[in-house]
Amino acid sequence: MGRLDGKVALISGGARGQGAAEAKLFAQEGASVVFGDVRDAEGMKVEAEIQEQGGAATFVHLDVTKDEDWQDAVRTAVDKYGTLDILVNNAAIVIQKVDIEDRTGDEWDRVMEVNAKGVFLGTKYTIPAMRKSGGGAIVNISSVAGIGQSNHQEPAYAASKAAVRIFTKVTAAQQAKDNIRCNSVHPGPIETEMLMSAIGSPENLEKRLRRVPMHRMGSVDDIAKGVLYLASDDSSYVTGTELIIDGGAIAM
Questions:
Q1: Secondary element (H or E) of residue 41
Q2: Largest CA distance in the chain
Q3: Cα 20 to chain center, whole Å?
Q4: Catalytic residue positions?
């Protein structure tokens, strides 16, 4: 038996990186998975991979900043698989670090729109479906940037991920009456295309790893396994908390 047998999950940012790893693992654990992204071609490839392995998966185009895209994604999950039990708010963007005075307002707004508003919209449109199904689990992907090591963080990204952390706790407290749990995951440096593009050079990567006691990057599977725990009934008494998966970075 899988840890998610009979569950239906919706995952944002699922075309590559952590989101794709989560979609694949969830399907392996028995869930029917709807996952979305703005990267349609890559998303369709992930859908095909999961289906070839015997899993149930449906890719949808999902711009997390758009109400109608979230409404369509939730509707697809319910219409195709009958219910909605799990939401993973995974989609996010990063930008190159600059000093606060050099960050433009438009850049700040774009990061907050995707990373924070996207989590809000996903939660907003998922709650009614979860309430109807008798409850569910929401897992929001934040970051160690939302907790600490502030001297080294990009300001807009850190602020957006801190917003996700607090929004998670508010959601957990207010939706417990509906049997909806909500927790956040806080990755450290994870080996993804998105992070490597932001780091920019081997020298910058080495500097980043000096702030990680284990002195290595994590893998997308490291994160997916933590998300699986919070999405499954194994964590049935866990809500409003944060799971840090960072190789010890916050401990420094």
A1: helix 40-52
A2: 54
A3: 10
A4: 157
Which single residue is written with the structure tokens 């449109």? 125
- CA-to-CA distance for 228 and 32, rounded, in angstroms? 14
Give residue 97's pLDDT band: very low, low, confident or very high (50, 70, 90): confident
Cα distance between residue 88 and residue 107, in whole Å: 25
Cα–Cα distance between 80 and 163 in angstroms, integer? 32
**Which residue type does 190 have?**
I
User: CA nearest 228: which of 22, 19, 82, 78?
Assistant: 22
Q: What is the pLDDT of residue 196?
A: 65
Rounded CA gap, 168 and 230, in Å? 13
Other residues' Cβ atoms within 10 Å of the Cβ of residue 129: 19
Q: Which residue shows structure tokens 């999405």?
A: 231
Beta bridge partners of 184: 140, 242
- 230 is written with which tokens? 């919070």
Closest to 97 measured CA to CA, from 211, 198, 239, 231: 198
